[in-house]
Amino acid sequence: MEFDLNDQGEIDMMGLKRMLEKLGVAKTHLELKKMMSEVVGGTSRDTINYTDFLSMMLGKRNAILRIILMFEDMGKEQETKEPGPPPRKTFSDLP
What we know:
By secondary structure, the protein is mainly α. Helices cover 48% and strands 6% of the residues. The chain is built from 4 helices and 2 strands, in the order E-H-H-E-H-H. The chain has a two-stranded antiparallel sheet with strand order 1-2. The longest helix is centred in the last third of the chain and has 16 residues, at 63-78. The radius of gyration is 18 Å and the shape is extended.
């Protein structure tokens, strides 16, 4: 959360750069691009999401990662809404 500069739940290139500088491992722009492409699986995304970050930090075969993702998925299942069309909204419902 500290390095998510735009509060979208993802770390972009500048956030990754600041994180590595704070850890004392400064990288060049090309090294950062290579690191990001390895983390996101070679896709052309410019950000690292939470799952990619966990995978990068803990390793894909790590049991802790599997447990974290399992509990997060269980929490998402409880948030499901009732079947059917959503209730009608009025102008007073807007933020």
